[in-house]
Amino acid sequence: MEPQNLTDVLEFFLLGLSEDPELQPLLFGLFLSMYLITVTGNLLIILAITSDPHLHTPMYFFLSNLSVTDISFISTTVLKMLVNIQTHRKSITYAGGLTQMSFFYLFICLDSVLLSVMAYDRFVVICHPLHYIVIMNPCLCGLLVLVSFFISLFESQLHISMVSQLTFCTDVKIPHFFCDPPQLFKFACSDTSIHIVLVYCIGAIFGGVPVSGILFSYSLIVSSILRVSSSGGKHKAFSTCGSHLSVVCLFYGMGIEVYLSSAATSSPRMFAVSSVMYSVVTPMLNPFIYSLRNRDIKRALWRLLSRTA
């Protein structure tokens, strides 16, 4: 028997960060600025990597894919919010809400898996430098990105399959700026206890495995660096991982802070405000971290801007 969509709801209502009409122009300008900064910064990273032959290496190949993911990630949530503010409408269709959730989980999971892949890349370059080119060949790099995408797609479809089975009997007013399953579960007429448990199990698996891979890679990296006799060699090895480690701490630190704050506060609006940190601020800061801490990126950006000028 094929599963049916039992919901009577044709659309959801996204209440956003504030319902105060006087704050809407301020929110529109603020989020539009952050969106443009994010897109511009990540596009510059992508253009610098693709235009500079010196950056055609596995590390920068993964970085360019991370930048594409960050642009897609912030576009999934912020663009709809900007349209709603500008048109003074708060609705999103049922199909549109499920699509937004699907892309949200796709790109947030892809971000996490790509960071794990980049940690493996740093492990190989530090612990097996002589075999780096052989191990991290173009075929393997492409395969790692492709596998990361399909893992993320599978995770997002699991979330959507659970939400699509819920029944909504009344107008769903979500105190958020995008459709988030934990918020939707509160408005479902059907029993959601099993769905909530499954959401946490899926999050633990698809979030815990990349984190475990990152921790394992860096434990081997630190062990290898400590065996280096010269202080200059240790500093060079640590600087190789500096940008990636900063992005990892920012990404997971923001995510943990958001969900800890959501558990500590009963206000859905406060959860929506805190979720801005990982859904908007993190993609915006990533290009700055890589450009400011990486000489190769700075040189490539300078050459790109010089040619453009």
User: How many β-strand runs?
Assistant: 3
Mean pLDDT: 84
For the termini, the CA-CA separation is: 63 Å
Supply the number of structural domains. 1
CATH architecture: Up-down Bundle
Question: Strand order within the widest sheet?
Answer: 2-1-3
Count of DSSP helices?
Answer: 10
Strand content: under 5%
Query: What's the order of the H and E elements?
Result: EHHEHHHEHHHHH
Residue windows where pLDDT falls under 50 for at least 5 positions = 1-7
Q: Which term fits the overall shape? A: globular
Could you give a short account of the major beta sheet?
Answer: 3 strands, mixed
- Evaluate the radius of gyration: 21 Å
CATH superfamily grouping: Rhodopsin 7-helix transmembrane proteins
CATH topology: Rhopdopsin 7-helix transmembrane proteins
User: Which structural category do the helix and sheet elements fall into?
Assistant: mainly alpha
Tell me roughly what share of residues is in helical segments.
over 70%
The level-1 CATH class: Mainly Alpha
Describe the structure concisely.
With 309 residues, the chain is mainly alpha-helical.
Question: How would you describe this protein?
Answer:
With 309 residues, the protein is mainly alpha-helical. It has a single domain, classed as Up-down Bundle (Rhopdopsin 7-helix transmembrane proteins). The protein is 76% helix and 3% strand. The protein is built from ten helices and three strands. It has helices spanning 24-51, 58-87, 94-127, 132-135, 138-163, 181-185, 193-226, 231-264, 268-292, 295-308, and strands at residues 11-14, 91-93, 172-174. Strands 2-1-3 form a three-stranded mixed sheet.
